[in-house]
Design brief:
- 43% of the residues lie in helices and 13% in strands.
- By secondary structure, the protein is of the alpha+beta class.
- The protein starts with 8 loop residues before the first helix and ends in a 19-residue tail after the last helix.
- 44% of the residues are buried.
- The strands form six sheets. Strands 5, 6, 7, 15, 19, 20, 21, 22 and 23 form a nine-stranded mixed sheet that branches. A four-stranded parallel sheet has the order 9-8-13-14. Strands 10-11-12 form a three-stranded antiparallel sheet, with no helix packed on it.
- The chain is globular.
Length: 841
């Protein structure tokens, strides 16, 4: 089925009988799918048959579906140097990698043995260090190794588990044998992406997936959870387990949020945790909640800025001391990054014999350490055929080819050399045909009471060339789902079915202060974006007709609203309020697309996405898919602005509808809705304050525009069926509590929200935020609009002007009180300082 001679004339003229006929058979590498150019391997045959039956056209459609699903799920990898801040979509190629049950059994045994061995090594180097004293491990490997953390020496982790979670990169050589290329112990990455791959591929090929006996991934996650809660340190019925993440700036934050949702553990950041009296607590709105276990998704050297003397905000000061006092279970323990030391693999065969009395089941990739005379001599004699790299730290760049010999001679213990890797190749879909790509396997294991269990699957990482596969970053690679075939019927399994019983019904929905802060501002940015989009849409609607800008009576009114919010530049010095069409178009385009202007639509939508990214684990998949659609705004500057604004408003409204109909009325929803109410009230009061003197002065026709911008025009028409008049317009926009856009409605909602906020204890008197909300609601209920007439200067005098001034002050006071009362545990909110010229409460 594979044609090794595609250049033959008869081969180029005949249509391929199979999609796999276009693959060039590799001469110096193992082929996963074929044993010879014409013979597919037995376990690949059903998959090849199914793909051929599907056809190229349908496979293209399914690959497009894979891409859409990943985009909707927000599956990204975030490069640190990405100027757009979007991240790179996680690249998933839809043809899975099947592995036989027998072959996987051998891998499981080898990986479990390797994990046990590495745990014994960690227990020794952070304990008695007999391996060092007896000469099994050289001193440089410990004392000259940045992966060895001296402050962690002598710490006995909970359950004596020095390695709870482990991963390894494997490749299959030309001889068909698997070898280990890299080990990961400090912060193994990829488990969430493996789960995402399985979710997507099982939906794209549902019939093939269910007809094939494929081992499920859920039992592995159940085992991981069950083994964690069985530790001696977790004795409560509902242990406090959290996932500690560096935050949205992490390259793999998508994985952190996915694991949080799937496992049900809260996703926290360093500023959410604090150490008090030798214990770790989670800072929540209602107070401090004890934490008993941390699944650490941060690097070793950034986990405790106090003990490790690091300037980082991702860790928890005092965490190592809490570990030393055995008051916290950390997965993996700080210091387990020693496993990641590249040169450690050179010593594993002898250490396996020494510590377990067994031979190492999985071979290492051939490597030599320059720290020994024999190793150094061999490397120097074969420099041209070996790859020289750092021995201690993977992040250290390798020496230049012209400097390798001098560098090795100057500091031999810091270098090692490996043979070039010749990994196996695997079929991959490439739009219209199947080609071959180089492949590594990333597999995962977790500790149990009986030893280690290996996840039946993982990530197959592929690339077009070996250099990209071995040293490239994920944005230049692809991944595949691994299907471990079972020789026994696969029973259905649900992760939820194996968790412990619920100890308490309808538990309170408390949340960390940081999360409340981001949800509050998410609500504010959503409302700010919606208000600006409605205002700009009103402008573009009028400019899209036949009338010239100077002939549109309410256009100047709308432009003045934009000027008041600094979205549009002030009037020209020559007194011309409406610029020429070309200049007007340039200003409006800047209001839409200028990323450097904090008041533009694209900048505000970026803030919506940033705030949502910080609470990603709190948003439903449907909500996150809606948020992802906002990325399309900046990608469509050439499209019709009016159509783009309509689509954006539709997307924002979809999110609002999901929040209203799908979110439980817990504290998360209340803080987000409070943000919306505060921002909507500020926006509505500003519209009336700015627009009223203009409406009553020269732009009477602008009353309709005011109602349109305030999203109340349909209500007015249905209720009054008459010409636009000032008193009923103001009644609808200010005092009508049945109108969701009125000031009275916002104040009534704020009153309801503050009554449900957590209290430290029973209070006799109302809190400041309760008094402020009630004062604003009372003021709007007492406002008398009868007798109000439209005349010049009406907004500067009388009860209405005093009321609007009061609302402006009280709304800012209310926002400050909420922050002071509930968000003071947030070390630094980005919403107050990083946006130049932003409106501050």
């Amino acid at each position: 089925m594979i044609n090794p001679e595609l250049n033959r004339p008869e081969a180029s003229q005949a249509a391929p009988a199979s999609l796999f006929d276009t693959i060039v058979f590799p001469g110096n590498a193992h082929c996963e799918a074929f044993s010879s150019p014409t013979q597919p391997r037995e376990h690949w045959q059903p998959l090849i048959t199914a793909l051929d039956a599907t056809g190229a056209e349908m496979l293209n459609l399914r690959q497009d579906r894979v891409r859409r699903m990943r985009h909707e799920d927000g599956a990204t990898y975030n490069p640190f140097d990405d100027p757009t801040g979007k991240g790179t979509p996680w690249s998933l190629e839809m043809i899975p990698l099947p592995i036989t049950a027998g072959e996987w059994a051998g891998l499981e045994a080898g990986l479990a043995q390797r994990a046990r061995l590495l745990e014994k090594i960690l227990a020794d180097i952070y304990g008695p260090q007999r391996l060092l004293k007896e000469g099994w491990i050289p001193s440089e490997l410990i004392f000259a190794n940045s992966n060895f953390l001296r402050p962690c020496h002598g710490i006995q982790p909970a359950g004596s588990r020095f390695l709870t979670y482990y991963a390894a990169d494997l490749y299959r050589g030309a001889d068909g044998r698997f070898r280990v290329f890299r080990d990961y112990g400090g912060n193994p990455a990829g488990l969430g992406y493996a789960l995402e791959n399985r979710i997507v591929i099982s939906r794209v090929f549902p019939e093939l997936y269910h007809q094939t006996q494929i081992r499920r991934l859920a039992p592995f996650f159940h085992t991981f959870h069950h083994s964690l809660i069985q530790r001696a340190s977790l004795r409560r019925d509902d242990p406090g387990i959290v996932l500690l993440s560096p935050g949205p700036d992490s390259r793999i934050y998508f994985e952190h949020a996915l694991l949080s949702r799937y496992l049900g553990y809260p996703l926290v950041e360093g500023q959410d945790l604090t150490v008090r009296n030798g214990k770790v607590f989670l800072k929540k709105l209602a107070g401090l909640e004890p934490v008993e276990a941390i699944i650490r998704l941060t690097s070793d050297d950034s986990s405790d800025p106090f003990a490790l003397r690091r300037e980082t905000a991702t860790g928890v000061a005092g965490l190592i001391q809490v570990s030393r006092e055995q008051n916290i279970d950390i997965v993996n323990p700080i210091g387990s990054g020693f496993v990641d030391t590249p040169v450690l693999s050179v010593f594993l065969p002898e250490l396996c014999q020494r510590l377990t009395g067994e031979n190492l089941l999985l071979e290492n990739h051939p490597a030599w350490w320059c720290g020994t005379a024999d190793g150094r001599d061999y490397v120097l004699a074969n420099l041209e055929s070996l790859i020289v790299g750092p021995a201690m730290d993977r992040s250290t760049p390798p020496p230049l080819p012209t400097e390798r010999m001098a560098a090795i001679q100057a500091s031999p213990y810091t270098f090692m050399a490996r043979e070039p890797v010749r990994p196996s190749v695997v079929p991959a879909w490439d739009r219209s045909s199947i080609n071959s790509r180089n492949m590594l396997l990333r597999v995962f294991a977790c500790a149990t009471d009986e030893g280690f269990t290996v996840m039946p699957g993982g990530l197959a990482i592929t690339a077009a060339d070996v250099d990209t596969l071995i040293g490239g970053s994920p944005e230049h690679q692809q991944s595949k789902d691994i299907w471990v075939l079972s020789d026994q019927p696969v029973e259905p399994f649900s992760l939820m079915g194996g968790l412990q019983a619920v100890a308490e019904f309808r538990r309170s929905s408390d949340l960390p202060s940081r999360v409340a802060d981001h949800l509050l501002w998410l609500g504010r940015y959503l409302e700010r974006a919606e208000g600006l989009v409605r205002l700009l849409r009103s402008v573009f609607r009028r400019l899209s007709g036949e009338a010239r800008p100077g002939d549109i009576p309410e256009l100047l009114f709308l432009l003045n609203l934009l000027r008041a919010d600094r979205i549009f530049p002030p009037a020209a010095d020559d007194g011309v309020d409406i610029p020429r069409y070309r200049e007007l178009s340039a200003h409006l385009n800047a209001a839409l697309y200028d990323k450097d202007r904090p008041e533009s639509v694209v900048a505000i939508l970026k803030r919506v996405q940033d705030a949502a990214r910080n609470v990603r684990d709190r948003l439903s998949l449907d909500s996150w898919r809606v948020i992802n659609r906002l990325e399309d705004f900046a990608d469509n500057p050439a499209s019709d602005p009016l159509e783009l604004l309509d689509d954006t408003l539709f997307t924002l409204s979809a999110f609002s509808g999901l929040a209203m109909e799908s979110m439980t009325r817990g504290l998360g929803w209340r803080f987000m809705d409070m943000g919306r109410r505060v921002e909507r009230a500020m926006n509505q009061a500003g519209l009336i304050r700015i627009g009223l003197p203009q409406v009553c002065g020269e732009f009477r026709s602008a009353l309709e525009a005011l109602l349109e911008v305030a999203d109340s025009i349909m209500t007015y028409r249905a209720r009054y069926r008459s010409a636009y008049q000032l008193p009923p317009v103001l009644d609808l926009l200010i005092v009508d509590e049945s109108n969701p856009k009125s000031l009275a409605f916002q104040f009534s909602q704020l009153v309801a929200h503050v009554e449900h906020l957590p209290r430290q204890n029973d209070r006799r008197f109302a809190s400041p935020e309760e008094r402020l909300a009630l004062e604003m609601l009372t003021a709007v209920r007492l406002l008398d609009l009868t007798g109000l007439r439209c005349s010049k200067g009406v907004a500067q005098t009388g009860a209405l002007a005093d009321f609007l001034d009061l609302v402006d002050v009280r709304l800012k006071d209310f926002a400050q009180q909420i922050s002071a009362h509930y968000l003071t545990r947030v070390q630094a909110t980005p919403h107050y300082s990083t946006i130049p010229g932003d409106r501050q409460p």
